[in-house]
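User: Assemble these into one structure.

Assistant: Restating your components, then the assembled model:
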Amino acid sequence: MSYLEYSIRTVPSGPAKILHLNWALILLLGAVACTGFLMLYSVAGGDFARWAEPQAKRFALGLAVMFVVAMVPIHIWRNISALAYAAALILLLAVELFGSIGMGAQRWIDIGFMRLQPSELMKITLVMFLAAYYDWLDVDKVSHPLWVLVPVLIILVPVALVLVQPDLGTALLLLIGGAAVMFLAGVHLLYFAVVAAGGVGAVVAVMWSRGTDWQLLKDYQYRRIDTFLDPSTDPLGAGYHITQSKIALGSGGWTGRGFMEGTQSRLNFLPEKHTDFIFTTLAEEFGFVGAITLLVLYALVIVFCITSALKMRDRYSSLLVLGITVAFFLYFTINMAMVMGLAPVVGVPLPLVSYGGSAMLVILAGFGLVQSAHVHRPRSR
Amino acid sequence: MRRGEREIQKSVTGITRRTAMLGGAQASVMALLGWRMHQLQVDQAETFRLLAEENRINIRLLPPARGLIFDRNGVLLAGNEPNYRVTIVREDAGDVDLVLARFAEIVPLPEDEIEKLRREIFRRSPFVPITVAERLTWDQLSQVAVNAPALPGLTPEVGLSRIYPLDADFAHVVGYVGPVSDFDLQNIEDPDPLLQIPRFQIGKTGVEKQYEPELRGSAGTKRIEVNAAGRVMRELDRVEGRPGADVQLTLDYALQNYVEARLSGESAAAVVIEIATGDVLALGSAPSFDPNLFVRGISSTDFNGLLNDPYRPLACKAVQGTYPPGSTFKMVTALAALEDGLVAPDERVFCPGHLDLGNRRFHCWKRGGHGRMDLVDSLRESCDVYYYDICQRVGMDRISAMAQKLGLGVRHDLPINAVAEGLMPDRAWKERTRGEPWLIGDTLNASIGQGFLLASPVQLAVMAARLVSGRNVQPNMVRSVDGRPLDRPAPESLGFDPAHLTRIRQAMDAVVNQRSGTAYSARVVESEYRIGGKTGTSQVRNITAAERASGVVSNEDLPWERRDHALFVGYGPTESPRYAIAVVVEHGGGGSAVAAPIARDILLRVQYGEVPPLSAYPDYLRSRIAREQDELVLRAPVQPSRQSDRA
């Protein structure tokens, strides 16, 4: 059974589809990506070829992927959702098994022109599968314990696999992203309340057990928590980076020092200045105005996706689009919070801006799905 | 198949409602991010701009002072001395090569040293200070300071470096420190940030290594402001680290010095234990080496010299060396026989000089034989045949169990690397490791401490302490850590029959103090300082029948490494024993001629608390002893640098 009302008559076909793409969304994504090129050019000290050029090429490739994905009717994507999830799970299992034995703890698969991390792929396929699951399930059964258990398992299996890698950041993204789809599908709020209470309880237990005989974490793990709460306790480790990152951000002021004029973020004391910490460069050179502009661009992406999703009448499309939106939202909020000292340093890139191919491609493929749902949405006759 | 319109409507409403809730949450998260941006970039912009533009904050690690090591009286064994050095911070130096080249004009640096430094500098994070040169003179340090403008990124510093004021005396016990190696780092689960400091020194051997966590302390930090040129403007604040804890040993520096001096020239080890507490008072291993060489960076010539020396100066023979215990083991066989009631104390065995077992003949060391011997006689004169006889009744498993009860074949918990376990085999051991059955001949060899048996000097000293006291004496070398005395229960009784122990003690008394005893020449004539003990001479080669027929080659005619080991275990004073001792002289010859006099001198030294007076020695020896005492090179008394914990 399905909610999909797809018919040739109500949906554009052939080249006409291109006209029906969500062009405003594409322009927004382009604007965000261009901000990224600009910052990479600046961080490289005016060198276009170092980071900005490969990044631009990847963006072009990603756009192409997005168009191709958008052209494929959404019901086909729905039909292969389970398959895609299974494939990603097998790849994840494969790098887990072979990565540690044969390839020296490697977490990616070389697919010729780039390295693909199955955990990145899983971020999309998990949302796809969950959306397909709720598309199939009767609305009345959504909060039945048995039918809640199934998606919980669907989420926890890849989370566990990613967690043993160990990649806490990605595991969190998968967990929250999956939970968000369940929330949107209408699972009763009580479940979320219980999980939240359990989470709070676990945190309290972990902190209270410190120093007692039944201490739950190792000593060094507690020290990491200390470092997050008070960076000055580990001034040469992660705390150093947070302190320096805050100085760079704060010294930007209202309007910033001007393009290519940043000193703090260019100096070598910031690690990964072109990947996870690139936001500091933007904030230093363009100030509060620049930083808030990027935040608004991201917010607009979210708003456009949500309004598009709300117009869709079938469950698969709207849950898929909303789920991908939440994943994208998590990316940039966690990164910004981390750089501004509001969240621990977990290694999540700033989407479409940070240098790196795997994440960029997966994000744009995700937006391809969003576009596909948009193009093939039912229209009133 | 499609869902009904009603169901679709229900789904759409549900999703819309939940989207509104989630969207609200998202909006508030983004509002929080926006507020944080405002807070950092607008509200606190001035603060950060100042920090960023005029000055930069640098954070430097303050290495803690390493804990000190004292002897039992509070005399310093391992301390810290100021060390003038120069460090470089890459991000401040700009042109590293130029700076290094200029520095080399003040302090000569060889070309390959500079290359090594460069690699080190570019391997580490740009903000980590790297030591360029250390142990500079005050003049060199001042020159660097005066030329600071031409040497950006270089900082003259006063650090601390380890010094061992008693140099060779405690080399094996205290050990030494050295720079952290990659190998060390691999073995540490959660590396201390301190270990990332290049050339940070950690304990490599001995107490320095075994008490590393206590001695190291924890790092402090200081935040400093530097201007654009890298000059330090001011110190913002500093968090003091916790200095390492001091460790006090049970050893006595003066006794240790005497032991090392007395052993010098030999490849030997001696251990003195206080019987009542198990405190190790001296743990000598000769020859020794100067641990300060390792702290300063030992040259490869010196190091190879130490490595290739046949006397093995780097090994702590007192705990790491294992030797066949020889006749010093006979008390173990005897006590096993007595305790199991298999041999009466007064029972006599006839010694014709050998014992035939099947077609094999086991010889006594005395070719003509000892005649009729009881237990005390056999120990006094070290008759082998007596033990060949009784061991067949006792059996190897009982002997081995008794040996382990007395501390042989057991790894004692001492803060030294690679404490030897020795070997006290039983019948199962041979089956297991060699796949051959235990033969009765093996038992005969074992009964006189030969064959497979191996024991370290510290085990032999523990054996002596346990035999004399009948208590389960545990050796220990550390008295207190960080001023807190370690809690050690008094040794418990081992449950031996006191009559048997008395008999063994009588025999050990007789070994030294009766005319026919094997160590009579090592007797003490002052009655309150008299000592008892047992000699041992352990073969390191087999004597063939042909050799025996033509007369056994005497030790002096053999090459050094084939000569017998000389051993002595003993105690003193005989009236109320306080100290136990074991002496092993590798390839020294006879136990009575070589090891016993050393043990006597050390036991007298510990009882008198000073170099023993000549009146303690028999008349005929006094002129020789006086000469020997003159030749001993002893350290001048050292004042304790802190109060002892226990007055």
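The two ends of chain A are 23 Å apart (CA to CA).
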